[in-house]
Amino acid sequence: MIDRERNKKLRVINHPILGKDERKKKVIIYVDDKPISAIQGEPILAALLAQGIRVNHITKKMKEPRGLYCGIGRCTDCVMIVNGIPNVRTCVTFVEEGMRIETQEGLGQWKNKK
Ligand code: FES
Known about the structure:
The chain is mainly beta. The chain has a single domain (4-10, 25-103), classed as Ubiquitin-like (UB roll) (Roll), CATH 3.10.20.440. 6% of the residues lie in helices and 33% in strands. The protein contains 1 helix and 12 strands, in the order ββββββαββββββ. It has one helix at 44-50; strands at 2-3, 11-12, 14-15, 19-20, 26-31, 34-39, 57-58, 65-66, 79-82, 85-89, 100-102, 104-105. A 5-stranded mixed beta sheet has the order 6-5-11-9-10, with helices on one face. A 3-stranded mixed beta sheet has the order 8-7-12, with no helix packed on it. A two-stranded antiparallel ribbon has the order 1-2. β3 (14-15) and β4 (19-20) form a beta hairpin. It is globular. The structure holds FE2/S2 (inorganic) cluster (FES). Residues 68-71, 73-78, 89, 91 line the site of FE2/S2 (inorganic) cluster.
């Protein structure tokens, strides 16, 4: 069963094979300076989809939005700036308390850690 209640927020809460999601520990991460709740240990991309956030970066040349594509770390459609480091694949990077994530424009720029 997928929770699709508000704004197409996606989170699998009861998987037919894996069962009920019983992960309890929540952490706060910041996406474009906005705090959101995430489950400790989940990929950043999963936390974003659960909040209805689908755009991870904007392409350099065509200025087109990109988000989840392969979901296994093989493409670059999910890259974002994470703790000041550009081009981080968010589908294979796990959330940590207080993590700062930014939508990436083009190739991204290194930023000072906050
Ligand atoms: S969605 Fe392809 S690397 Fe993340």
